[in-house]
Design brief:
By secondary structure, the chain is α/β, with parallel strands linked by helices. The chain has a single domain, classed as TIM Barrel (Alpha-Beta Barrel), CATH 3.20.20. About 40% of the residues lie in helices and about 15% in strands. The radius of gyration is 18 Å and the shape is globular. Bound molecules: NADP nicotinamide-adenine-dinucleotide phosphate (NAP). NADP nicotinamide-adenine-dinucleotide phosphate (NAP) binds next to helix 9.
Length: about 280
């Protein structure tokens, strides 16, 4: 068997590079409707994979239907090493409002929609994305996810938007392939779950690694410590923010989102940026 590349981590038993790609920025504004520039969105996906990305995060409700359709058009038939990760637990209405879809039958319908749109027999990993006000117990949801995995429709079960209690409960019920929670230089409110994953050696996939598209006064890329470090290390603020996350734990996997080819190249290069002690102290 080939040795696993040293910068790879096993995600549901499949090796992925630590620098992946998040597809949420590809649909139109507000993650709703078609992309502003369809050819560019397809080019971003193809360039990511050409550059070695083998972990792409998506969801049927990005668009809705748009991100998965772009992934299918750009990349199908998929390279064998590509690990597509999707999520279930939400839906969109006709105005683009986000709706919870937390019931077991909705989780199953979500997986089936991903299988159809991505044209897969199995989604390698599906995150159960908990809604903060969900009235469905997580144990009931996991029972549905475990059945889907037993049937071979999903390869691994991930968790998203979970607190520490839910994470621990889930781990007591089944194997957890990864955890995807918000975490970045400016928002460390999920440090407890981050620490638990590091201790348990569970891959942790921080979303909003660059501070997200939702806040125009980006608290990550605009932070003086980030800008100063970027200047000193001849890097960009985005690269500093990503390198800091990679430095935090060996099983951190990144999925920065972009619709720009230039930003994609910049983000991929962050995998090679080594932060020195001065940078770590300033950023911490
Ligand atoms: N599980 C969940 O509930 C959940 C929630 C949110 C996101 N996610 C996943 O996490 C991924 C990452 O999160 P995200 O996309 O929301 O936020 P993000 O990666 O923190 O930030 C994306 C924003 O940063 C910009 N950007 C990207 N690269 C940049 C660079 N090098 N320099 C400056 N700006 C840059 C993007 O704009 P441009 O397009 O102009 O580059 C976009 O506005 C998503 O794509 C999605 O797959 C999951």
């Amino acid at each position: 068997m080939d040795a696993m590349p040293s910068d790879s981590v096993l995600l549901a038993n499949r090796p992925v590079h630590r620098m992946g790609f998040g597809a949420m920025q590809l649909p139109g504004p507000g993650i709703f409707g078609p992309p502003g520039n369809r050819e560019r969105a397809l080019a971003v996906l193809r360039r990511a994979v050409d550059a070695g990305v083998n972990h792409i995060d998506t969801a049927q409700f990005y668009g809705p239907d748009v991100a998965n359709e772009l992934i299918h058009e750009a990349l199908h038939p998929y390279p064998e090493e590509l690990v597509l990760v999707s999520k279930v637990g939400a839906a969109r209405d006709e105005q683009g409002q986000w709706l919870p879809a937390q019931r077991p039958e909705e989780l199953r319908a979500g997986v089936e929609a991903n299988l159809r749109s991505l044209e897969l027999d199995q989604v390698p990993v599906v995150n159960l994305r908990r809604h903060p006000d969900s009235d469905v117990p997580i144990a009931e949801q996991l029972e549905a996810m475990i059945a889907l995995r037993d049937e071979g429709l999903i390869g691994g079960i991930g968790l998203s938007n979970v607190d520490l209690d839910s994470y621990r409960l889930a781990r007591s019920l089944t194997e957890v392939a990864c955890v995807q929670n918000a975490f970045n230089l400016a928002d460390r409110s999920g440090q407890d779950v981050f620490d638990a994953c590091r201790e348990d050696e569970v891959p942790y996939v921080p979303f909003f690694p660059l501070g997200s598209a939702f806040n125009p006064e980006n608290p990550v890329l605009g932070a003086p410590s980030v800008r100063e470090t970027a200047r000193r290390l001849n890097a960009t603020p985005a690269q500093v923010a990503l390198a800091w996350l990679l430095h935090k734990a060996p099983k951190v996997l990144l999925i920065p989102g972009t619709s720009s080819l230039d930003h994609l190249e910049e983000n991929l290069a962050a995998a090679d940026l080594a932060l020195d002690q001065e940078a770590i102290e300033l950023l911490s």
